[in-house]
Amino acid sequence: MERHKILGGKVALYRRSEDGAWHCYTFLQGKEWRQSTKEKSLTLAKEVATDWYLELCAKDRHGELYSGKSFAKVAAMFTDEYEAVTRGHRSPKWVRGHKDRIRLHLMPFFGKMPVAAITSGTVQEYRMHRMTEPLPEEGQEDTQQNKRPWKCPARNTIHNEIVTLNMVLKTALRHNMIDYVPDLSDPYRRQTKVNHRPWFTPKEYKQLYEATRKNAHNPKQPRFKWYAEQLHDFVLFMTNTGLRPDEVKHLEFRDIEIVHDEWSGENILEIEVRGKRGVGYCKSMPGAVRPFERLRDRPRPNGKLSEDDAGKDKDETGLAYALPKPTDKLFPNEFKKMFNGVLVDHNLKYDRSGKARTAYSLRHSYICFRLLEGADIYQVAKNCRTSVEMIEKHYAAHLKDMLDTSLINVRRSKQSPQVQIGREEDE
Fold first, then answer.
1. Is the pLDDT of residue 52 over 90?
2. Distance separating alpha carbons of residues 163 and 22, to the nearest angstrom
3. Given 1.10.150.130, 3.40.190.10, 1.20.1070.10, 2.40.420.20, which CATH number is that of 69-133+152-192?
4. d(Cα 225, Cα 242) in Å, to the nearest integer?
5. Are the C-beta atoms of residues 10 and 3 closer than 8 Å to each other?
6. What is the pTM of this model?
């Protein structure tokens, strides 16, 4: 291996092959620093190595020469810790989201950088990097024609990446690799306006359940009839209970009980909810009882019939039908495709603000309907297993019925000038 020393032996140049590029290395702060000059000419390599060494000395003099664990190693440490500690508390999809953000975006930018070198300015450079369209490399302009056009990532997407970066830096802080976590907040972020959650107005909700009822009576294909009936009851059940879609997904028949409500004199459902906030309870509106009874009394597909199963209920496809058991799921199938089809066919997929409606919009509609009817906001929050702050921020802010004109349109009574003059004369 050919070697040359410059600057009084402080910097050494070497190359591994005769036609390869020259590399340089030196010692500073008790550590070896290496860099490729990317030059095959020894003369040019010496100039690059000299500039590189002087730059290192300047950084060392100003306290900007960082060493220690790289971001790649700390990110790998964070991934192992986070996956092990949150097992059973966080969904695998949530954990995988952090891994994907590190692999796709954070690692290419911060990978080789020492974790101690990451500052607020570095993070701002990363934001600029993500929000700037990358320039095509030489010879790749023709290949970019068939690809999708570049699209700037949403602000929330970059925010999630900064959250992942913050968790990696906190891992380094716990292991004494850095002294503090830098300020990662967006310096130019303005106060964002609070947008309401997409929901169905009473008129739109009526249009929706009439559409699902019609679809249940006359589905596009006969084999979809059971699923269409389930979808209709799903819409009514969700809007009269306010449950989250993931809570309904884990709901079993044994978790629901029909009880008599003394206040209203009607039957309602008492539901033991298991979901995002652990185990909680919900009391439904009376309108949820009938859909639940239909779900309970509706036979559901229970596999193919054999030749010995003569006399059992079956359809033209040969599927056996049986009543659900107490341990069966209330809704064993998802209706995403069929639900979206109904929304699109009746122009209900997007609200006025252009936000897409989903199954979660049925929960939002329940909360808005309760507030419009004058329900106590604290009791609504408790029944929906959320906070009053969230309801005031995302629901009560855009409902006109939440404004009390008796408290707003107050007018101070004014006395006539004649009365005032008369009083002065009496005095």
1. no
2. 40
3. 1.10.150.130
4. 26
5. no
6. 0.65
